[in-house]
Design brief:
The complex is a heterodimer of chains A (334) and B (715). Chain A is of the alpha+beta class and 334 residues long. In chain A, strand 1 and strand 2 form a beta hairpin. The two termini of chain A are 50 Å apart. Chain B is built from 40 helices and no strands. In chain B, helix 16 runs antiparallel to helix 17. Chain B is elongated. Classes of the chains: A alpha+beta (334), B mainly alpha (715). At the A-B interface, helix 1, helix 3, helix 6, strand 1 and strand 2 of A face helix 2, helix 4, helix 7, helix 9 and helix 12 of B.
Amino acid sequence: MSPVDPLFAFAFIQTFIDILNEYFGNVSAATLKDNFDVVYQLLEETLDSGGHPLTTSSNALRDIVLPPSLLTKLLNVAGANITSSINSGSGLGSGPFSSPIPWRKAGLRYASNEIYFDMVEELKAIVNRHGTTLSSIVQGRIETNSRLSGTPDCQLSFTNAQVLTDCAFHPCVRLKRWTDSKVLSFIPPDGRFTLAEYRYTPNHASTPARFVNTSTTPSAPPLNTARDNVPIPFALKTNNELESNGGNFNITLTSRLTTRDIENLVAELHLGEGAGGIKCVTARGGAADRYGRGVEGIGASWAFDPNKKILRWEIPLVSPSSSWSLRGSFTTTS
Amino acid sequence: MSIRAPRKGENYELSVDLNSEYREKRKDAIKRTIASMTVGKDVSGLFPDVLKNMQTEDLEQKKLVYLYLMNYAKTQPELVILAVNTFVKDTDDPNPLIRALAIRTMGCLRAEKIIDYLCDPLQKCLRDENPYVRKTAALCVAKLYDLKPELVIDNGFLEQLQEMISDSNPMVVANTVAALTDIHNAATAQPSTSSSDPGIFTITSSILNKLLIALNECSEWGRVAVLNALARYVAQDEKESEHICERVVPQFQHVNGSVVLAAVKVIMIHMRNVRREELIKQLVRKMAPPLVTLLSSPPEVQWVALRNINLLLQKRPDILSNEMRVFFCKYNDPLYVKVEKLEIMVRLASEKNVDALLSELKEYASEVDVDFVRKSIKAIGQAAVKIDAAAERCVNVLLDLIATRVSYVVQEAVVVMKDIFRKYPSTYEGVIPTLCANLDELDEPEAKASLIWIIGEYANKIDNADELLGIFVDTFTEESYPVQLQTLTAVVKLFLKKPDSAQGVVQRVLTTATKDCDSPDVRDRAYIYWRLLSTDPGAAKVFETLLEELLGEISSLASVYHKPEETFVGRGRIGADAVRKGTDVSDDRFSTQKALQTVVAGQQAENLLDFDDAPAMEGEPSGLAATQVLSQTPAAASLLAGTSNNPLDDLVSIFGGGGMVVSTPAPGFGFGGGSAGFEAGLSSVPATPSMLAPQTPAPPLQQSQSQSDDLLGLF
């Protein structure tokens, strides 16, 4: 036997988890137990006993393994047998795997034709202790929910396509069209899928490298690499005093946005082994506050997870340029 | 066989329900049976009852029954025979799903008796009109080959698979390739394989074209299979290599990481034949983004990606030259990811980005994880050795770290300083007093040995060198061997530089070492073996070949271990022996084998390090094989030939040269860095090392291991 490529195995496991999620909504011991027959069938269809993944496209899978639904359960109770009537159709025409496009079901029909795109972006950044952004990357993906009849040929064009770099696409996207004219041209699978993943690269003309100047270490070279850092929408400053068996901390968070709010902001602080006895006060304000003194943080809250040793600080709404603080103390056992 | 269950209990109830007249009740009973089977209860007694439910229109029910059969086929094959008829009948079913399911299940049963019934239906299914059935049947052939190769050959299934590469459906092509590759692997795994074995899957240029067409249309898993086959293809000429590269490049944009890595592998392999600089540049430029994208995956995937990136960087340092920031460690990265990132950052370090790197490494050195801190400090040293212009800044950072007085930080910094002194002799002498001031805090052998080396090297610049070394001579017998060896050398150096004041010390240390020391190494010729095993001038070349070998394995386990497959799969343990029998083949092949041999030897050495007593090791044949490798190499040969009358003169020639260890930035794996500097010294090493080597195999190996770690660490 030759060894399997490790990424191949990881990729398959991830795909299988995604399939389970799609079938059952979430994956837990309980859902697996309740639907063990479906899980078995899915395993059978997705992985061959020799280790070759088989059908993993959810469009094709739905044809051969029926997802559990209220309807099938009801019908089962009523004694009707929907499964056999669907599955026993002869191979040609409308049967499974008859679609000429491997990722799309044939013969779909919707009353209203709709397709939705969600662009989900994540900003990952490393900031040093002086507040300088060392690296920040925005990774995005286009989540799509397609409910279109027949065999639709879609085109998605962007006004500013050059900010999307390092793209990875669903197999349905015609790569050549993208390379030539930066247009996403595709025949979508049915249902939910990820159309593309990309890295956001700021447009050089419109965003001057503004964080270069804030660098506090004079010897640091200007960040004139091909990909400039993406500005972080808020600043986080910490002030810690450590003692032998605990310490105080004072964390200030300031929004750098001038016009827009930040919603549902959550800050997680990893405290490490032995941390405990957390006491915190969260407040809005600081010097910038026009009331002159710290106002009790409206809606802001904190919680400590003693298992993961994580302190969570949640602020539901951070208005432009506002500043928030979390002051508190902790003790350590070791 | 089927003992009926007693007329009560769970199994009895199930049996009743399985025979119920209501379809839904029967189906429910099958589910319950499978549930019992899953939790480990014995439901084999229900076999006949379950079997009755096999003939059904309901596909779901059929699948569950098949599942039950698969589970018991291994333990009770005679029962499964009863089901054969239904299976064969199902392969004629009008529903393609049932046909495919039946042929797939028959392939999985792995019962000898069933197999004989498999051939006819398989023959039919391979020609089925439905592509789903054909692609399922293709994989079934590989399974049959695994059980009974002669059946596959006699029935002409192999020829049929070869034809199916031209199938109109890309998924069928992909599965056919996967099946042929499986058969190829199974056939070549046999020790007696000849090149005419029918199982061998040779990719011709007409197959190549079909693969390239199927590549863009099949599923992600199919793409990996096709790409792996492409990696095996030997291109006829440069034009063909270029063609393959151009066709494979779009795969970089696939979301599936394993497709990306498999594509990188194909490109790296076929790029060897590409001469057009412009195209190479373009390929390399396109390779970077997908690799960086992999770094946003979960840590375990990241790690695999990082290991592969590490390998790629050794061959093509320019791939990610602008992307060092991507590899900065996040606070919540697991240690294994951080360590790998560190290594890559050092590889990417250049004059342009070294400041950013240093400030980052300095941060890491103040983290809580001791391992990570040490590795970060090591990385500072590596950066200093790599980039001349940055050495001074690195030294300053190290001094800052030493000032923290944290024990392990100081010790590691001392070790690193030693390496910097070696690379830049007599440049940073101003640092020496600071280092000596920390003498009392050192308790680890490596740190002690490093400081002693520094004292010995700069004995004439340190006023109280004899005093400092005297401290170590006093405790000589209590120290570990590396420290003893280093003390010995340092004292002799001191003596050569200050003959008057050091006479007493050198007398004392030589007496202690020869009389009271229990290590033959230290006692007799420790100082000679100190650099012995790393002096193979062929080593640099050997590792170049190894790198080529590993690059051919991108994305596989081999690339993760950084060891060729042969050393850890199956025959690994006896790899050295297996390799030896093929020594008469061509030169190129030979050097690859030598590389393998060296790695195997290195592995042995690693394992040997776990044991402390020498006798146990003498029995280890591969340990001796490792020493044999050495005697074949030119350096060792010249070593054998060399003679000398005065050992002290040799000492001078070995150590007098000082910082030669890292004199040249070696290509590839960096093993050979020391070779150039050492040749001179070694040609005059006293005779009979070959006699000594077998007597004390352990210490030299140990030395070589730590030495090579040391050297590898530097690059």
